[in-house]
Amino acid sequence: MRKLKVTELNRLTPEAFKNSEKIPLIVVLDHVRSLNNVGSVFRTSDAFRVESIYLCGITACPPHAEIHKTALGAEDSVDWKYFKDTLEAVDNLKQQGYTVCAIEQAEGSTMLDKLVLDKTKKYAIVMGNEVKGVQQSVVDNCDLCIEIPQYGTKHSLNVSVTTGIVIWEFFNQLGL
């Protein structure tokens, strides 16, 4: 096997990305403090044509060198908005007809491997702070909670890893 060169990958230009079909998914970052995590979420969102990212609270916004270090330019292709308050972002999404899902370990959460999405609906996933997770007030205002099954000793995954796993599942079910 021969590794492909970057020029052989036939990727979209940022302009073509802006005009391309997206999966009906918005990623909401609820007080994510690490700029590397924010950049990683941009890059994964670009890879799977996520509609937009909502950056909330203390979550940093582009342009920023530390975001760019991991986003590698995806912060220029993926649309984003900033909200001072995550609850405002959730309310905004609900008014637009999105089903809002907190990605959190909670009573009654749906395990990701059991999740069945409706292709006729639009979704948003709320990703929480690296230490505190999704704020309880935000969880209370979401339509459901989704949890990634885990089988080791740790109680959580890195927020950018979690986001990648969840986006992949939404992409597989919603497709382009």
TrEMBL record:
Family annotation (Pfam families): SpoU_methylase (PF00588)
Keyword Methyltransferase: yes
Residue ranges annotated for the tRNA/rRNA methyltransferase SpoU type domain, each copy included: 25-167
A Gene Ontology biological process term: methylation
Coiled coil spans: none
Organism domain of life: Bacteria
UniProt GO MF annotations: methyltransferase activity
UniProt-listed InterPro entries: Alpha/beta_knot_MTases, rRNA_MeTrfase_TrmH, SpoU_MeTrfase, tRNA_m1G_MTases_N
UniProt entry keywords in alphabetical sequence: Methyltransferase, Transferase
PANTHER family, A to Z: 23S RRNA (GUANOSINE-2'-O-)-METHYLTRANSFERASE RLMB
Name of the protein this chain belongs to: RNA methyltransferase
Organism in which the protein naturally occurs: Parabacteroides faecalis
